Amino acid sequence: IHSAFNKDLARFFWQAANGRQKYHVVKWADICMPKDRGGLGITASRRMNVALMLRWVWRILHGE
User: Fold this and answer.
1) Is the dihedral of CA 64, 58, 29, 36 positive or negative?
2) 10: exposed, middle or buried (C-beta count within 10 Å: 0-12, 13-18, 19+)?
3) pLDDT of residue 45
4) Contacts (Cβ under 8 Å, ≥6 apart) of 41
5) Exposure string (b/e) for 16-38, b if CB count within 10 Å is 16 or more?
6) Cα angle 44, 57, 53; round to 5
7) Are 38 and 48 in contact (CB under 8 A)?
8) What is the pTM of this model?
């Protein structure tokens, strides 16, 4: 699921209006870096999913 989501997100950035692929000038890993490190601040879906799952585990363990 994560790879499909990331693929669709990358396609949004790199696909031209006519459906053809554009030239990649930046690596996807660089785009996912924080803004203060030169990226666009886009969070990779796998990292976001892990963070949200850990948040739920924390809430369950602490009775919230």
Assistant:
1) positive
2) middle
3) 78
4) 33, 34, 35
5) eeeeeeeeeeeeeeebbeeeeee
6) 20
7) no
8) 0.48
> What is the token pair recorded at 45?
């879906």
Spans in the chain with pLDDT lower than 50: none
Going by the DSSP 8-state scheme, the letter that residue 10 receives in this structure is H
> In this structure, which amino acid lies at residue 1?
I
What three-state secondary structure class fits 15? strand
Query: Which two tokens mark 6?
Result: 């990331």
What is the model's pLDDT at position 16? 66
pLDDT at 31: 83
- Per-residue pLDDT tens digits for 25-37: 778 788 888 999 9
